[in-house]
Amino acid sequence: MWKGKKVSVIMPAYNEEANIKNAITEFSSEKIVDEIIAIDNNSTDKTKKLILNTNAKYVSEQKQGYGHAILKGLKEAKGFYVITVEPDNSFSVKDLHRLLEASEKQDVVFGTRTNKRYIQKNAKMNSFLRIGNCFIANIINILFNTKITDVGCTYRLIKRKAYEHIKDKFVITGHEFNPDMMLQVIKNKIPFIEIPVNY
């Protein structure tokens, strides 16, 4: 729990046998995490078996797509704070506390991978990808008078009340779900902040 309120972590998984167990173990080691929900999105490898051998809640989502997996996890989560993170070894559990701290005054916290100081060696964030993310973010900034830098970061936090407010508004269920979620938060005037995360 975080300050008396339950924390849920959602991990979408498609053929993540190389990383899923380690990711669940890492986040489980944080005493503030009350539940981990691993959503198996039609994996053809040992992902299901590995999840079932952990303390995570196994959930199957037959509709293919990152967005479908995240939406299933959001429905299953019981926490006041719901954190989404990909279990592919891209993100650090150390940033979990930073996300929660940033949520003290905001209902949504978006991670950003565009701060060079936080981009680790061998990260899949080359200059082209970083500039592309910033470019799309700048278009959103111009259209909605916001200040964001990364539309694709999958490490983020949403409070239960914010999710309930926008849960029926999502229309994209593929990899573009993340910018759609961001736009729904912005358009519905839900208080948010963006913080750099290790990547």
Molecular structure report:
This protein has 199 residues and is α/β, with parallel strands linked by helices. Strands 3-2-1-4-6-5-7 form a 7-stranded mixed β-sheet, with helices on both faces. The longest helix has 18 residues. The protein is globular. It starts with 6 loop residues before the first strand and ends with a strand. The model has no long low-confidence stretch (mean pLDDT 92).
Walk me through the topology.
Layout: E1 7-13, H1 20-28, E2 35-40, H2 47-52, E3 57-60, H3 66-76, E4 81-84, H4 96-102, E5 108-112, H5 127-144, E6 156-159, H6 160-166, H7 177-187, E7 192-196
Parallel strand pairs: 1-2, 1-4, 2-3, 5-7
Antiparallel strand pairs: 4-6, 5-6
Rg, Å, rounded: 16 Å
Distance between the termini: 25 Å
DSSP E strands, number? 7
Q: In percent, how much strand structure appears in the residues?
A: 15-25%
Structure annotation, total helices: 7
Rough outline:
globular
Helix proportion: 25-40%
